[in-house]
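Input chain follows. Return structure tokens only.
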Amino acid sequence: MSIANELAQNKINNESDSPTTSGCVVNSYNEWDPLEEIVVGRLEGASNPPRHIALLGGIPEKLYNLLLIGGGYRISQKWGIDLAQKELDEFIHILESEGVKVRRPSIDDYHRKFSTPHWSSRGFCAACPRDCFMVIGNEIIEAPMSWRCRYFERHAYYSLFKEYFEQGAKWTSAPKPPLLDSLYDKKYRVPKDGEPMRYVINESEVVFDAADFTRCGRDIFVTKSNVTNDAGISWVRRHLGEQFNVHIIETQSKQPMHIDTTFVPLGPGKVMINPKYIDIDKLPSILKSWDIFVAPEPVIIKGGFFNETAALCSTWLSMNVLLLDEERVICEKSQEPTIRALKDWGFKPIPCSFMQFNPFGGAFHCATLDIRRRGTLQSYF
């Protein structure tokens, strides 16, 4: 064989050696390739997050004020965790019934107090791994989060990620921020209609939540928010390099925090948007060739402890779905308008009750971290 022919053959071999055939258990480039393995968060050991100004950037003000009394205390099994755990168990059962391998983080006690040289806090929970970690291909990236109560949350995943590392995965942690008082606007208040946008964090440290990013192969979309600053976006862009394009999605939310109630890719050429947070005319120009699905208004569940003022997240969790492939999608059972819309758009909804889980920080997308989807790195634009 000539040198030229040998080089050509090697190129073919390298191209055919996709991440799914290279032997690494970690492989995920988008939100819709067939899901094979996933991490689901835990509720055991959960506490109410301690009251800190950073939280006001993402939770209802009424709940923020309640944390002055209840912040830092363990969440009651009877009135909180038990009900949510039943829903979480059913969600896991659905995943496993659909052929997905489910992994879990370790159990920890988030009521314990911890400190750094600059501050002390208690924890929150390990319910939402999507907030803390991002998987790009065979790499797990730990986010430098701005909520002090989540500073050591990543430790619950250490043993699991060490296992993935031993099987060939890359394991990267962004620079751990000191989270000094100077990072936060102590006079922050949620902007009212007509007022200019303001953020509870500034640019003095590199911070981001992984849940502010969503993946579409070579193109990554992100929202600047009250937990993700420009410096954090720049770090991700520089870390991923020229192989990926990072696009900023402008949001009209007054308390922006996490992209998965704002801009939700549903497959190649398909994205669901929040009509309250997104101006279609201001979307990146590359999305002009995509189908833009407008999410229906969420159904607000009245009554009981877990209503729209008690959840640590947006009322638009109706959009927080988990795709098992380009057709099957797990969604909230009580959100009938969303279920009907998904059917009309050509999907096969799998309803699951998750309302009691919502106060712990999210829904199906938040509560999970894709580890392996059967697919390769592609461009969809």
